[in-house]
Amino acid sequence: MFAGCIFTCTFWAICPFTEDVASLPIAAWIPFKTDSSPSFELAFAYEIIATVIGGITDLNADCFMAGFIMVVCAQMKILNDSLLNLRHFAVEELNAETGGNNDDDGIAEELQKIMNRKLVECVHHHRYILEFAEEANSLFTTSILGQFAVSVIIICTTLFEMTLVPFASIKFISLILYQYCMLMEIFIVCYFGNEVILESSKLTKYAYHSDWRDCSQEFKRNLLFFMTRSQRALKLYAGGFFTLSLDTYVKILKSSWSYFVVLIQVNKDSG
């Protein structure tokens, strides 16, 4: 995404030099005349620098939001691994304490205590993940919703503008790069939000495969409690309306395409 942002700004800076009449990269109100030197060069440099700074700032904000979602996803993967290898980790800890193998014909009493303690740690770990996810979601839910709404408009209008410029021109390439940035901007949050759903939906399965059959009744009760609590997959939302998932990403693309088709039709009718 960073490379896409830099290349987009670079092509925007090149575009005015490919036209017959010199113009600024972005149509904007400037509080002085820009039809002569050095005012034109100053305005040109100002717009390019401002665009680069704005693009990088927006990119950092996107990565910051995606980073929180990635943390939730990574913690879910760690929790799944802890559940699946619960006995293995308990045996390792017991062997480190006693210096021998205590997992032969049955489960030693000490091993049962360690397994139950580790299961309780997994329960607490799951609770901490849910609390962190809720805090992170409440922090970014409104901004992500706004990003989705703006992205639909930008993707649609960029597609429309691409139909108005010569194919393979510098302007056309700059629009492709800009479109790539906009698509990736919402893709990263939707992708990792979808990964959170997938990883959290595996908790019950991995808990069931934690080799619990010959464990104590206390362990089985705690395991049943955890499996009951983790049956519902963790979902992050944009504004409380849209789930951060690949399905939502596809819906955004479909909406953008629908509005693009409408714009094309309106343009034909008005022409």
Automatic annotation (TrEMBL):
Q: What is its main location?
A: membrane
One GO cellular component term, please give it: plasma membrane
| Listed GO biological process terms | signal transduction
* Coiled coil (residue ranges): none
Q: What molecular function terms (GO) are annotated for this protein?
A: odorant binding; olfactory receptor activity
Supply the alphabetized keyword list.
Answer: Cell membrane, Membrane, Olfaction, Receptor, Sensory transduction, Signal, Transducer, Transmembrane, Transmembrane helix
Stretch forming the signal peptide: 1-23
Q: Where are the transmembrane segments?
A: 139-160, 172-193
Q: How does it sit in the membrane?
A: Multi-pass membrane protein
Location of the protein in the cell: Cell membrane
Tell me yes or no: is Glycosyltransferase among this UniProt entry's keywords. no
This protein's source sits in the domain of life called Eukaryota
Q: Does the keyword Signal belong to this entry?
A: yes
By what name is this protein known? Answer: Odorant receptor OR38
Q: What is the lineage of its organism?
A: Eukaryota, Metazoa, Ecdysozoa, Arthropoda, Hexapoda
